Amino acid sequence: MITLDFGALAARRPTAQQSSSRKSLSQLSLAVARSKRIIVITGAGISCSSGIPDFRSSDGLYNMVKSRYPDVVMKGRDLFDASLFRDPTSTQLFYTFMAELKASIDAATPSPTHRFIKTLHTKGKLLRSYTQNIDGLEEQAGLVGTSSSAASKKGKGTLKNLKDIKSVQLHGDIHRVRCTICSAEYRCEQHHVEAFRTGEPPSCPDCSVRCQDRVARAARALAVGTLRPSIVLYEEVHPLGDEIGTISARDLSRRPDLLIIMGTSLKVHGIKKLVKDFASAVHNTPPPSLPTRNKTCVNPFSRKVVFINRTPPAGEWEGVIDYWVKSDTDPWVQKCEEDWKRFRPADWEVQGTLVGNPILSPNVPSKNAFKVVKRTPRAVKRELAPTWHLLDFPCTDYLPKYSRQRERDQTESRG
């Protein structure tokens, strides 16, 4: 594993090692710009600049919970373990804490890192983003997530349009609530948050309706579930586990050419396996075919695994992660975009077209004049179709007719 110190960029008189890091960081930016199927895996570190604390740092959520409830939890992690529901006191604290966390998340906006992932998608380079975060900032940045309404859920815990999902939420979404019995899901509204703040979860509307219907028919009443935040705790099974498995298997088969890991300590078992699977797929992806004269132009960062985080990865990642960029994620993505625009400015150009011109495009309404569009071959063909008649050759009726006899007569007259 090679370490790239982002602080080398600030050195006025860089050492040889710092100069090497500068060059490597620029090469990494170029690799991002050239890649076509990038997998991004993120953790809580990418949301810190948005005002949402991470989990394991000195001022993270685990230490916050431990200092606030020392008589209830031994470790901060205990409040995120499914076993907490066995004790009424810890259950009440869980709901109260979730209400506070939801309020802080509602006030947050996407960070530069979230917007960078969206940029990768816009530029057609993002194969998929996998996040451990429950804040939903990826969706706020413009990516369709597994809990998004645009994912077109049908039934309970089933996704319809897997191909439209660009952000896989591995630990659920705090912006949704789920019934503890029937698994019905709802958007988390303000009245849900107010109920959580008191420590008492609201009842499930679906369960309540079914129970009332049975009572009205003089049948035995059914148990009514309660609503809880639709997040995945430790020792819990993800309600969309099968669908997420299908998505990841599909992505593994599509030969990703770059794996970027940002803002995570890589200590959760599930994320460890996911990273190792994608790292193996990236390393085994064949290089692009290039002419013999260009073999030396292959970027050393292509088909690599890059880890961007302030703290180093554990020793078990030696041989899995190729490069560790010692940095917060926001400064790195900002440099990456700057280098990308400098190395490949054409990727950032948006070509304008004048539509609404009564001569060139008579069928286009004038209100769409000077519309800026992204040019694609299909779009160009569709837009130019009404004006192709302007490019026709003159009608053959106005041209002199050709015949071999006329050619012989003209030859004899010249002779």
Automatic annotation (TrEMBL):
Its main location: mitochondrion. Pfam families: SIR2 (PF02146). The active site is at 171 (proton acceptor). The keyword Mitochondrion applies. Zn(2+) binds at residues 179, 182, 204, 211. One of its GO terms (cellular component) is nucleus. It is found in: Mitochondrion. Residues 15-339 form the Deacetylase sirtuin-type domain. GO terms for molecular function: histone deacetylase activity, NAD-dependent; metal ion binding; NAD+ binding. Keywords: Metal-binding, Mitochondrion, NAD, Transferase, Zinc. InterPro entries: DHS-like_NAD/FAD-binding_dom, NAD-dep_sirtuin_deacylases, Sirtuin, Sirtuin_cat_small_dom_sf, Ssirtuin_cat_dom. PROSITE patterns: SIRTUIN. Belongs to the sirtuin family. Class I subfamily. This is Deacetylase sirtuin-type domain-containing protein. It comes from Botryobasidium botryosum (strain FD-172 SS1).
